[in-house]
């Protein structure tokens, strides 16, 4: 269906949309897209002023699968922004990008499921499945598999049993965007086995960053809570799960598991914040959650900032078996200060760095600190160079408090 001009609402309820094909844009819906063969140039700056061509897209109790567009947007492509996307109890699969949008495919292009040449402002996915969608190569300034928003996203909410599994793209296996204010995963959400880049020569923009999300600008807030599993996502370059130029804060609470994510050739097995803004503090808080067996050339979390506050608390909090395969900081690395606080029975064990800082590596700054308190346990961490637990250019304090234990950590050289 080819639509010209603004659309108030696209509503899909109790429907099946599958096996549609288009040589150009949007096999099921193409909204104001130019004819195939017409160049569409999208720049980072253009998105803020792009007109909304779709007010709402609502998908309820529906299946969208195996749609194929030769240029972009296997299911839907729009020249402009969309204000609201709401997907509930639906599937989008095998598109090469989607929410149990299984099967929509944009071969040698972007947005296996949906492509917006503009912003995707408010996106909510509830009790739905997004799986096995793929965007093979890049064509725009951002390449994404399951969902592609070339402009800004204000809120992305994945809720109540949503599954995001097996999506692949050159960058951002699930989503690629210019900026995102809030990413929230809550209540039994699974985000697993998504990939940026592949071993078959597939390449794209952002150097194959972000197995799940590739954000070329800022990602202000990441909130993950209540039985969420984020596992086995990978990127050829940086950010096995999440990549952004700058990440403001990350919160993992109430039985979250982050495990087996990998940045094969860069930084941040789970998350990489690669930009630098002078004087800005970042924060990571882990409460009663597990961070297990994530790996990267550098740290499990990699933050490039003046200061990173890293807090781990709760008797159910375990940080274990993370690795910096070829560099520093098995769990976290930063080019500035790291203020690390472990408390309330948290366990940090058997993390390793081939360089320095089995747990943490702070490359610069004057105010790095380590506080182990309230029954926290730190043991069996190792570094092949300096700092079995922490390596820092300058330490302002090292405190071991009541009931805490720091034991059997090793470094081949100092500390």
Description:
Helices cover 0% and strands 49% of the residues. It is mainly beta and 415 residues long. The strands form five sheets. The protein has a 24-stranded parallel beta sheet that branches. It has an eleven-stranded parallel beta sheet with strand order 11-17-21-25-28-31-35-39-43-47-51, with no helix packed on it. Strands 14-18-22-26-29-32-36-40-44-48-52 form an eleven-stranded parallel beta sheet, with no helix packed on it. The radius of gyration is 21 Å and the shape is elongated. The termini are far apart. The relative contact order is 0.07.
| Estimated helix fraction | under 10%
Strand content: over 45%
Structural class: mainly beta
Radius of gyration: 21 Å
DSSP, total strands: 52
User: What form results from the Cα inertia axes?
Assistant: elongated
Residue ranges: pLDDT <50 for 5 or more in a row? Answer: 37-49, 97-103, 138-142, 199-206
- How many helices in DSSP terms? 0
Average pLDDT level: 85
Distance between the termini: 65 Å
